[in-house]
Each structure stands twice: as C-alpha cells, then as structure tokens.
Queue: 4 jobs
Job 1
Amino acid sequence: MIEILTTDELVRARDTGALVGDILQTVRSRTTVGTNLLDIDRWTKDMITEAGAVSCYVDYAPPFGRGPFGHSICTSVNDAVLHGLPHDYALADGDLLSLDLAVTLDQIAADSAISFIVGDSRAPSDLALIDATERALAAAIAAAGPGARLGDISHAIGAVLGAAGYPINTDFGGHGIGSTMHQDPHVPNAGRAGRGYTLRPGLLLALEPWVMLDTAELVTDPDGWTLRSATGCRTAHSEHTIAITPDGAEILTLPH
C-alpha cells in the first residue's frame, strides 16, 4: 500500500525530517579519528530520546537481517555500505564512514544517510564515490514532482552513477515512508523514465543512491546485518526523505 499524507501529517513530517538531519550533522561534527562506533550509537540514542522520538532501528527485524537490529544508527565503514551494525571499532584516519538514520517523531518517520571521510587523509577515489552519490541524489530530487513517474527518479539516479562508471545494484534502494519507515513503492537506483507509479502530492519518499567502486555484488557479514562489497572495495551512500508537493519535491531531512 502507498501512503499519502494529509496536510497535518506533512507538517509533522517536516519536524521529523529536521530532527534526523540535525542528529546526523551533530554526529558528523563530533566524529574524529579515534571515535568508536559504539559512541556514535550512544550519542544518537541520547539525542533521539531527548527529542521525544523513537528509533526505527532498535526493534527492526526484516527478513534480510538477523534481527532485531538493536542499535539506533547504521555505521558502515569503508567496504561496508548498508545496514552497518555498530560495534567496538575506533575510526582511523582516512576511513570512509556512512551513517544511516531513521526515527519516528509524533507518528511520522524520516530517513537519511550521509557519507564522509574521517580525519585528514582524502583519497580521490573516495571523494569521487561520495560526490557521485550526492549528485545522483540531487538529480533524483530534481526529477521528482507531481505527475512525474517513479521511473523518472530511478533513471535520474542510474544515469549519474552509470556515467561515473560505477556498477549499480538494484536489490536495495529508496522506498516510500510515512507512518512507518519502509513502505511501497520501492525506488531502485536504475530504471526507465516514464514508467511506474505517478507521483502525487502528499507522498513521502526516501531516496538513497549508494555505490561500490568496482562491483554490484554484496556479501553479508557474520553479524547478519552489515552488507559489504564482495571485492572489499570502498563504498558510499547518500539519502534524503522528500515530500511530493504541488510545487515539486521538498527535502525534509536537511539540518537546521
């Protein structure tokens, strides 16, 4: 089922989205060489609690994970790209860290992800990965609006990632969001323009381009959650929750 939010629910969605964006920005600003992934999870939990919100992840137990997840944020490092389970690891200079966060506030969820490099080392290939996902996300948002088709979004993402030379995996991608975190429709990171569901005002979508440097194949860690590149190559992930409005697409998960 595809959920269309009311005007009141959209107001609440803006509050949830701002909270997610603010938490991610705060965590990014605090993260330095030596920061432990478990500290990031603790900071996130504290901020969610202080805001009167609820983590979408702690009790999350989908068929593809060894659930429940049990943590408040996904922390994916280097060759890990999705669903990174926080564990006892101190970040090193040059680590490529992806953070993925979803919370529910006042019964409406929002979801966002960022990737960045820890410390001072900046490998050009890592910067290019992050840049490609951010440009793909911007293209997806530009393609979204009332009357557009779902395939327009997928095509926009795939065009950017493909032009950058990265293989594209369509097993995991964007999704509808609203009163729950994961809803229809699925938004793959490649597709054909002009096809699929017609976007309507009130629809919330979490759009999330992610790439791996030289493969489209994923492997699952023994922890049952963390998804890594099959070749051990670096990865990146960017995501925003957007609302379809009569005027276009509104990004909800920007920090204040």
Job 2
Amino acid sequence: MDNKIIKNNSFISEEEKTINWEEVQSTFKKTFGSEVYGSWLQKISLIKEYNDYLILGVPTRFFRDWIVSRYLDKILEQVKSFKLSLNRIEFKIIEETKQNQEFIKIDELNKVTEIKDSILNYNRLNPNLSFSSFIQGKSNDIALSYSKKVCEHISRYNPLYICGGVGLGKTHLLNAIGLELQSSNNVMFISAERFMYHFIKSIKKNDMVNFKDFFRKSSVFIIDDIQFISGKESLQEEFFHTFNSLIDKGSQIIISADRAPMKLDRVQDRIKSRLAGGLVVDIDTPDLDLKIKIIKKKIDEIQNQFKEIINLDDEVINYIASESKTNIRELIGVLNRVIAFSRVHNKNLTINDCKNILKDVFNQIRVITVDKIQNVVSNYFNIALSEMLSQRRSRPLARPRQIAMYLAKKMTTRSLPEIGRRFANRDHTTVIHAVKTINRLSEQDDEMKKNISQIKSLLLE
C-alpha cells in the first residue's frame, strides 16, 4: 500500500510531489507579517497531506477558532499556490510539543511590564474621523444623534452599542466620540482583535495585573468589532469582568459590532444581556441621497487637498451613487477610479464614459465557488468550517449550513447533487429543504434578509 495510489481521492503516492511546509511557513511570514506569524501561524504544523486537502495541527481549540475566523481564506490561498488541487483545510488539536513549550518559556524571559506604550502605538485616534466629517443621512441619523448625546452626558446611555454592516461608518462614529471626549477624559479606543492580542500576550508573559489595571482605569472605554470575541471563552470572561468594573466606577462604554447583541453567536448570554441592557442603535445601508452627499463631500475634500477642479455633473454623480450597491467604502473606491480616469485623460466625463470605466465593477460576472461561499458564511457566523460541514444539527450550525447551501444554489451553476456532495456528501433533498427554508425566512425575518444581503456583499467584494 505504501507505494500505491489510492484512487478515491485519498492518500497521495510517494511519487507525487508533496508540499514543503517550511516553504509554506516562510510564505506565511511574508504575507501576514512577523507579528501575526509569530503569535499564531508559526505554531501550525502539517499533520497529513491528501490530494485535495490538508490536515494541520494547532496547539489548542482557542488557536484553531481564532485562525479559522481570521486567516483561513488567506492560508488556503497561500497553500493553493504550492498545490492547485487543494481546496480544503482541516485542523486537529494536538498537545503542545516540547519545542513549543520551550518557545513559550524563552518568550517569557522577555517580559514586557509596561503594556501602555504597546497598546497606544496601535490605537491612536484618527483626527480625520470626527463628527464634522461624518455625513448624516436617514440610515445613520439616529446613531449619530446618540453618539453626540453620549459626549454631552457620560454614563447616561451605557453602554452605547452601534451595530451595522461593513463599511457603513461604525468605526468613524467611535473615533469621533473618542476625539470629542479625550481632552477631559482617559479614553481607551481599541479593536476587539487588538484587545484579544494583548490579553493573550499578557497571559504568556504572566503580566495580567498590568493588563487589568490599564484597561479598567479608563473613564471612556471604546471597543470596535466586539463580534470577534465569539467562541473565545477565556477572553469573554476577562471582557465580562472588565465591563462590570468600568460600569461600577461610572465609566462610559461604547461598542460596535456587525450585528445586534442577541444575534452574537457563541457569546455568553450574560455578556449579550449586558450589551443589550444599554442603548442599541443601528446603521443601515446608505440610501441614494446619502450616497450623493458623500460623493459631493469627497469631491470637495479632493479639490481642497490637491487644489484642482473636478468636473462631474449631477447625472454622473447620480449614476455612481445608484449603481454602488454595497457600502461607503466601495462607493469611494468607485469615485476615485472615475476621478483618476478624468485626470489622466483631461476630460469631462459623460455617463457613457463612466459605464465603460466601471463595467468591470458594476457588470462583471464574478466567479463564485462553493468553497468561497462556505468560507465566507463560516467566517460571517464565526464558526469553524469543519463544524459547519459536520453532521451536527444544532441551530447555531444548521442555519449557517442552510444559508451556505442556499447561496450555493443561487450564486453558482452547481447542480443540487453536486452541492450536496460539497457539504459532506449530503443528499440533494437536504439542499432543496435548505433552499426552501432560507427563501421562506428571508421573506418573513428582516434579520435573515439582512444577513443574506451582507454575505452576498462579502462574496462580491
């Protein structure tokens, strides 16, 4: 058996070229940077290589969940450059080897007792993201109004929880609040990802006392993208106690996330209850009027900055605003492309010019694969891909699985049996049931409709 090829997509033969894991790790370091590589990816080991997927080893469940939720797509993209037939990665929890343990001991010798400088280097407030530069519209006026009220009456709305999709202005509002309050308050502004990074680093360096003291002494605590604590039990425990400590001392807490508190998956109920107990405000997708305001504001900024005249008539501006369907970031990217073309060719653009310039943006038929849908859906709901594809039928796994099947049917040319096979060899009738279920829920449940819309946007980015 050692010298034979197993034909049903199983083990590769000795004659077939295999992946050099050291070369892959070297690519990881260049692609992700030395900080992410040293903290997370360096500890990944290759356990088994098959024709179309890899089994990788990680030291703990916590490591696996974090890597899957943040880096899996890019990891798969990197390993595919070494072997095109790979289309899936699975993770296995393994005990830390002696080498890993020695690595941690060596790391502990370099203890950092002052956490403050390290955090502030990554979390400075952006002076450009102020209330004056935030453009108000029907989709965000409530969130803007209460963000300003928080600055007038600290602790009156506590916590203030701002939720909405990607690129709609949540981080801008959080930053604006920080700028408004920093002169007379001890403001801490940090992303959930960075909060987690320093939490893990402090545990490794046995420096949790400084970690707790630093975060709990702030009078205004602002944390962005709280959904990233999903599934991290030890981090959630620390966040819960930090939250309670700040509330008890009268500090103002402002939080953002991509969904409402009670919709956060794999987050402790007591945390969701605390978050929902404050003021929850939502930012919706911008309407046409707001997009037009944003375009005109951006044109003014460019003209003032570069001292040049940009001639885009109202017809062109309306076209750009109406055709940009996802978020503000995409809208600004499209506008920059049009302005650059106008600048290079030194001409006033017509609507037909814009259609030609942007045809690959607005009209391109993007290649959406079942693999991409599975990865995007699992990341969106913060669950491991292997769990979503498993035979477990619990609601937190079954609903994302049904959404992924629904999108695979709607956005790819794969047949029902083919889709079923890509979901751990499920029968085509399971796919039919999933499509019907999500169709029905999309019509009845606004939250489901919003989830589907946001996932589609991610797939089309």
Job 3
Amino acid sequence: MASKVLITFLGTGRLNKEGSNTRDYAKVTYLFNGKKFKSSFVSLILARELKAGKIIIIGTLKSMWEELYLRILGEGNINEDFYLELTELHKTYKDINDDVYRIISRLEKEVSEKAGLNIKILLLKNGINQDEIDFNIDVTIDFLQNQLLGDIKWEVYVDITHGFRSMAFIINQVIFYFSQVFDDQIKFRKIYYGMMEVIKDLGYAPIVSLSRLIDLNQWAQASYAFKHFGNAYLLSDLLTNKKDNPAKKVLKEFSNTLNLSLIFHVKKQLRALDKLIKQEYHSSLASLIIPRVIQDFASFFGSSSESLKDSVFQIKLARWHFNRKNFGLAVIVLYEAAITWICENENLVPTARNDRERAKSLLSDKNYHDLRNILSKYKIDNIRNGVAHQLPKQIPVSTAIKNLESALNELEKIILV
C-alpha cells in the first residue's frame, strides 16, 4: 500500500503592523470535504485529513519560517534565540549556505518532533533569473530522489495555496516528470488550492482541487504517443467512462495490430478508427484530441486509404514507420510491400501464403530486375533477417538506416505510380 506525501509551500506572510518586524499568516476558515477548519497553515489541515505520512515544505530565505516554528511549537515552547534567528534569516543571509542549512535542519527536526509528523524542508532560491530557476529544478530533483525513491511507494498531493506562484508551476512539472519516469513508485494524485480570494463572498476559503492540470498533462502525453508513434494505449487507458468503451477497445486493438505489424489488418483497422472521428465522447479532452489525431494519421495515407492497393498502402506505412524512427517495422513492411506489388502484377492473392512464396521466387525474373536490384543493392533482406531473427553479424546500424531510406525512396518511385 502506498504512503501519502503532501508537498506544500511557505510564503513571506505579512507584517503585523506598519513598522513592525514580526510577520504572520492570518488565521483563515477553510472548507475541505464539507468540513470547516480555522488555521494559519492550510497544509496542516490537508496533512491531517489526507493522513499524510510525510510533509515536504518548500520555501526561500524570505519565507516565514519563524511563524511555522511558533505555530507548531506554541509560544510557551519556543527558544527565543532560535526564533529571532529565524526571524532575521532573510536579512542575515543573502544566499543559501552551510549556516542556512544548519538553521533549517534544526527547524525541521523541532517541528517534526512537536507535530508528530515527518516534516522535510526544501530550501530554494527566488527564481528571478535562469540560473536560479535551473538551481531550483536541479535541487528539487535531487531532493525528491532522496525523499521519494526507495522501498516505499508514494501518492503525491500538492498544496499551492502559499508561496511564489512561479515556484509552484516549476515544482508541479518536476513532480509530473517524476511520476512519469518512476510511475511504479510515484503517483501524482491531487493539486489543492485554498481560494482566499472568495473569503469576503463566502466567509471562508474553499480548498479546491486543480487536479485537471494533471489530466491535461496525461492527455497531452497520450496524444503525442499516438500522433508520433501510433501508440494509443495511453489514450485508451484515459477513457474511463463506460460510454467511451467502444473507442477504448478500437484504440487498443489498433495499437496491437500496428505494433505487431499485421499490415493487412492495419488497413482494416482504419475503417474502425474512422468511426471514432464523429463519435461523441464523455471527456472534452477526448473530443478534442482523438478525432484530430486519427484524422492526421488517416490523412497520411490519403482520403481514400481504404481503396488503396495493398502495396501502395504498405509502402506508405513503411514510410510512416521510418519517419517515426520505427526502423525495424519499416524494413519489414517495406520488404512485404515489394512482395505484395509482385502479387498484384501477377494476379496472385497477396494474403495467401503460397502466392506470396510464389511472388518471392519471381524476384529473380527479368520483369522484376529493378525491384531485385534495389533490394539487393541496399541489403534489405539482410537487414530484415537481422531484425526478425536477431542475427549476430549485421551491417552497421547507421549504414542500415541509410540503406533503408534509400531503398524506400526508390521503391516509392516504382509502387506509387
């Protein structure tokens, strides 16, 4: 079972009054899951309600660390000298150094012990230029590696109520990156925001979920995978509504067919895909992405792809694979397109095994001299056998790719007439 981690931000707060050196977060009434809570720190509410096993607090030198210290330990339990040190932190130090880390480490230890929570603090720069932004990203990646990668699986929740907005955007992207690279260990679940802008209207700040931002990233990733590689598995997985089940099935079957290079079945699958263009989807994201990507794929083969001769469709499919650097599939489909073309010229059945064997034997016939020369010149059969049978001795990879491209260019001139 996965543990929950809440990642939150600590801002600069406000001065208690003009001329004062003390800052605080005003206590605010928040609404979460139908219950109201009054607190200075929305993160403490979320941590308790989510039953988080760890809290990561992100801030800068200017963040109100003294207020965090005071609120968690209580006025009667704080060390006055340490409280003053935290108050003056942003004035004493202009940059993060070992002394700053020492102070933050002590704060981390004391608030964790008092709150009975596993609290970790990540100190970042303001992010006012590219160097500081790069620093923040690199430090965050290193920090999250140490905190989230290991034997424990984590569900990540993010609270962006406080802190610099630009920092929240960067951190969310880093976390999404981690959740994709280490998807077996990290699940990005929710983004929360305490909406204090509506307190005057409602009398409280609702804690709202902005988790559609995670959905948008996932849909964009799925769209890219389908558009550029014909991989519709991610799109299929995102279709969770029962109304979308027919599309879910078609997309998965299409990917299976394409990845297995069942070239005669791919053409048939285009008919099923074509129906998805006009289908109504439960998700607005699906309605925007799926028809567009399918239309892009279908248009590569032309408006009448279903009526194309099999050899023409296959050579186009070989080109499609090559353009997407699916070189193994490209060489297999290219070779089969040549055999299909012979079948069509000789009135043989392209889908019949015996007829295809007959077509292969005709490669030595004088009528197919040009075709045979192309396949021989660029060692297509050797490359194809190397891919299919994993032979140890093969021509260099770079040469194989150049040969494949040259053969594809020349075969297109023969078949696409």
Job 4
Amino acid sequence: MPVGPDGWFEGGKTIKVEGGIKARSRRGSIGEEWWSRRFIDILEGICDKGRLDRGRRYARQGQVLNLDLEPGRLSARVQGSRAEPYQVEVTIPVFDAEAWTRVEEALAHQAVFRAKLLAGEMPTQIVAVFDDLRLPLFPAELDMKCSCPDWGFPCKHLSAVLYLLAEAFDDDPFLVLAWRGRARDELLGALRGPAVETPPADPLDVPDRPLGLHDFYSPAVSLAKLKELPGGASAPPELLLRVLDPPAVRVRHIPLVDLLRPVYRDLGEDQAS
C-alpha cells in the first residue's frame, strides 16, 4: 500500500465520473444554513484538516455517485482511483418512539417552534429543546466506515460524503430530524394534533320559516316598548361626523369635517324648534 511522506495513503490517479453528485459550493466552506454549519463545525472539529480539504475537492468534482439517507444510517458510493467505487457508511443513534414523543410534546408547547416547523423552517432554539431532554440533535461522534485502504480517519471519501450531506441539510432541514428517526410528515402530523373531521357548513341551509304579509309589515319590537330617552336626551346632530372616518378633503386648508360640524348643529337646532 503506497504511503506518502505525510503518512497518508496515496492511491493512483482518481477516475473521473460522469453524473456524480457535485457540491454547489465551488470554493470556501460548504453549508449555508445554520443547521448545516452546525453539522460542519462538528465534522471539522473531529476530522483531519488535510483529509477534509481532499474531501471537499472530491465533493466538488462529483466523485460521489449516490447518497442514501435513512434513520440512523447514511450510505454512499464514492469513485476513487480503483475501478470499483468505495462503499461508505455513516451511522448515528436513532431516538426511539418514547424519546420522540417527549420531543414533540416539548415542541408543541412552544408556539414559536410549532409555527416555524409547520411553515417548513428550522428555529435555531430547537437545539436547546433537544439538549434539555438529553437528546442531542447533532451527534458529537459519528460511526464511519469506508472500504478504501486508507487507514486515516476519516478518509477523503467519507469527508466528501459528509460535505454533500451538509448541502442536503441546506435544501431540507427536516433531514436532520429524519436521520435521528423522525420523518417530516410524522413530526408535523404530531404537531398539528389529531384531525377532527367535521362536515362543512352549508351556507344555504337555513331554517324554513314561512313569512306572511302580516309578519313583513309588523315591527320586530312592540311600539309600546319604544320609549323616549330619559330627560329628553337625544343623539348629538353631528354624531355621524364623530363615528365615520373624516374625508381627506380640505377647504382653504381647513378640514371639511370641521366646516360641516356647525352646519349639522344648526340643522339639529332647527328641527328641535
């Protein structure tokens, strides 16, 4: 097995592939959203910088042939210098049903978390919810395997796969939760609560009550019950001007409502006399 001066395995020339998965990021760091960057920070904290650099190049060249994510397991094939692609696998612990019930109850009691998740967003404070339950959302350690002969950990093939996973997290933050064992639809269904099926009300369904001519012309309230306001009190003549929104009209810089108010009062005095 050829080994370079820095102790790394050195294979032959990398076989270029067509149709591989290429990272969108062409330079600099990979991962745009906060949850992707959180995952990358963990990755870069436990992995060798040189192999990570090589892994980024592999990810950008499209050397990863496929990326399959399921609860607790990420698998991929990466084309290296050998004819047969290398098999890569990354596993993390999956939360059981009881743990997810606790998570969903905690999220449902926080209106902000519930609203954002139902809107397809990942609130930053969600990490604290998992931490408080002693169920870390992002794994501190990753169980990683690659079929390549490089004894280093992780190799560039694993690094490339993990960088592409971070970009997949960018596209769909619910993959972070799915990797821990809860699919998007299951989580959102639990946050919405049980569906109650009620037939829609028919707007045309009204009580069938015959209407006679005597009903039409009869007052709804007995005339005997209509009494004059005590003390002869009556509504002010400019009541409408107080209730309605004033028109945005001015006459010689004077609001129209101010000009109409004394006119209404005069009319009221004329009717009283």
